[in-house]
Amino acid sequence: MQAYYSDHFVLPLPPGHRFPMPKYRLLRDRVQAEVPGLVLAEAVAATDDELLLAHTPHYVQSVVDGLLSAAEQREIGFPWSPAMVERARRSVGATLCAARTALAEGVSAQLAGGTHHAYAHKGSGFCVFNDVAVATRLMQAEAHRRRRPLLRVAVIDLDVHQGNGTASIFADDDSVFTLSLHGARNFPFRKEASDLDLELPDGCTDDLYLDTLDQALHMLWLSHAQALPGLVFYLAGADPHEGDRLGRLKLTHAGLAERDRRVLAACRERGVPVAISMAGGYGHVIADSVAVHLQTLREAQAQWTAWQAARPVEECSG
Fold this sequence. Notes:
Strand content: 5-15%
Shape: globular
Structural class: alpha/beta
Number of helices: 10
Distance between the termini: 30 Å
Low-confidence stretches: 314-318
Helix content: 40-55%
């Protein structure tokens, strides 16, 4: 299975900053050591034209040229720097690569991404550009250029925080179905309306979470009874884990592994390609977040293998 990374593009953050920048390199190190069948490639940078598919020209120019106000930088949570711009471009680029690969092979992933708090006109919550929104628009545009039917997309967002930016960007778009399963009392405190929002109480444990997930997936597939989506973006946040500093839920490693299995197996059984982003993870012990992401990638590889086994064998000619 192919996966994409951008962890060597890092931000110069002040001491004590809450964003777990080392997490991404630690995850790649563990993937290289423990998941030998997963093929890693460096992400390309998203271009301005690609970013403009989901973001306003004024916002893209403000980010690229360093014109964000102090208040805008505070809302994003990062001080502006050329490194911030490059990292944001690479994060989007990794999701673009994963989406293309998923459409070709069934499953692909990137080792960061899930920047779902970014709106069309602004960033927020450690999210500069919305990788899933840009990738959705680009995959739809590429399908159109190939004279293929409209690519319908579903977003399964299981980060502990609601995907407010994604919901806002696709609010009036019937070609994109947004699903968010998140903590009711967690950031963002002003939620946007997804196509399907299911809220969880503080302290939610495995059983309640998985029951709610089953309901969400049932409603997702029911809403697509006439035609399945052509691509799913799965935001597999590690922040519902019981050891997360920001999550407020109490899921175990086993519960999160089962979450991933149910989502990815449901997509494979229906023949729907899935591109996976890691999204959030802010463990008191950073290794806990890395371990959750790693098991997501292990399950993704298992599902990719099942995809390949199910493909018809092409007959040789000659």
